[in-house]
Amino acid sequence: MKVLVINCGSSSLKYQLINMENEEVLAQGLVERIGINGSILTQKISGKEKYVVEEKMVNHEDAIKHVLDALIDKEHGIIKDMSEIDAVGHRVVHGGEKYSQSVLVNDEVMNYLEECVKLAPLHNRPNIIGIEACKKLMANTPMAVVFDTAFHGTMPKEAYMYALPYEMYEKHGIRKYGFHGTSHKYVSNKVAEAMGKDIKDLKIITCHLGNGGSLTAVKNGKAIDTTMGFTPLDGIVMGTRSGSIDPAIVIYLIQELGYSVEEVNDILNKKSGILGVSGVSSDFRDIRSAAYEENNERAKLALDLYHYKVRCQIGAYAAAMGGVDVIVFTAGVGENAIETREGCVEGLEFLGIEIDKDKNKVRGELKEVSKDTSKVKIYVVPTNEELMIAEETVELLN
Fold first, then answer.
1. 33 vs 38, 212, 290, 292, 346, CA distance in Å?
2. How many domains are there within the chain?
3. What is the pLDDT of residue 117?
4. What phi and psi, each to the nearest 5 degrees, are found at residue 281?
5. 89 carries a ligand binding annotation
6. Residue-wise pLDDT tens digits, 135-145
7. Which residues pair with 103 in a beta bridge?
8. Name one GO molecular function term (predicted).
9. Cα(102)–Cα(108) distance, rounded to whole angstroms?
10. Who contacts 178 (Cβ-Cβ below 8 Å, separation ≥6)?
11. Widest CA span in the chain
12. Which of 101, 164, 199, 220 is most enclosed, with most CB atoms within 10 A?
């Protein structure tokens, strides 16, 4: 079975065509600047030169048409015609309270996705446009929706409730939802497999550390808590996002300093985090270079702050689960930043968490990096959200 995985952003689209018989990625690509001048599609297929299409793409339907044309192109493609695509799996950020698992696309699902736009307007709207475009172009191909929030649907009420007036939850759905769920689910299953253990016997803390970042407590295969909340702004410090702050700061910025709501939203989402503290960049590679090579004090502070927040959260989730068996680092920073992994577990030896600095000299590959004496295992596990989406799609169809 061949599954096409689609991940639509506001002006971009990522895709992979995966042969689920052997989990081989047949083709992968990126469409950028949809609806903007300079639209470009870049496709990579093993054994072939990179295929680039620079042509105006006015909307997502136009972009997906170009994707399908690229996949069936006689010289640069990988399949003869669209009938070889057995199913399409769509990443959707927010599934609200209704969907704690993936679902096949139908009218009821599409109507509910529209209701969820208010919860994630920047993400769900492009996701819906991508699904509608695929439905037009591939009317007879079954499609599935895989939600970023779904894995966190098993959180107990005391973990996802906010201490606000209860009617705000009942009437408006204001609660913690959590995100990055597809990644957290994939790496928690993968580390259990690598350890030769049943995931139902493990207490796992998964650290998805990229420009956006979140941690999840996975107890006996189920998410019981996660750091991102009502929106992806909550939780640990991130590249440009503030993470958790005193909510009264927002009131102070508006009432005392005269910022508008839009300006505060822009500050918290785009000008804070590692960028805001360091004044250098939101890219951790730039921060490390400034801190260690240029002796930039604010860059050092940004890294120290980041490590501290992750460390505290690891301790909190060990408490929430009554212990921890394994810690997983994944995503761009988690998989590649050697110093960050060390900084995030430094001082946690009292919990039986000991990283091996020699083993830890690894980037982008599945490997245990804890000391042989460490009671808690530490793993680097490259995430693969596209494969997880494809697996969920196949499972639904079966």
1. 6, 21, 31, 36, 42
2. 2
3. 82
4. -170, 165
5. no
6. 988 989 999 99
7. 145
8. acetate kinase activity
9. 14
10. 149, 151, 152, 155, 160, 214, 216, 223, 226, 227, 228, 229
11. 63
12. 199
Final residue in a domain of this structure, among 87, 115, 147:
147
- Domain boundary residue, one of 147, 162, 180: 147
Residue 187 belongs to some domain of the structure: no
- The residues of the chain scoring below 50 in pLDDT are none
Q: Is residue 391 part of a domain?
A: no
Q: Which two tokens stand for residue 197?
A: 């253990």
Set 148, 225, 234, 325: catalytic member: 148
CATH number at residue 91: 3.30.420.40
Is 332 in the same domain as 225?
yes
- Residue 7 labeled ligand binder: yes
The two tokens of residue 231 are 């929106």
Checking phi first, is residue 216 left (phi over 0); if not, alpha (psi -120 to 50) or beta?
beta
Residues 202 and 341 in one domain: yes
Does the annotation flag 91 for ligand binding?
yes
Is 210 annotated as a binding-site member? yes
> Which pLDDT score is estimated for 145?
94
Does some domain include residue 61?
yes
| Annotation marks residue 372 as catalytic | no
334 assigned ligand-binding residue = yes
Q: Which domain holds residue 105?
A: 2-147
Q: How far apart are the first and last CA of the chain?
A: 11
Q: Can you tell me which residue has the tokens 């083709």?
A: 27
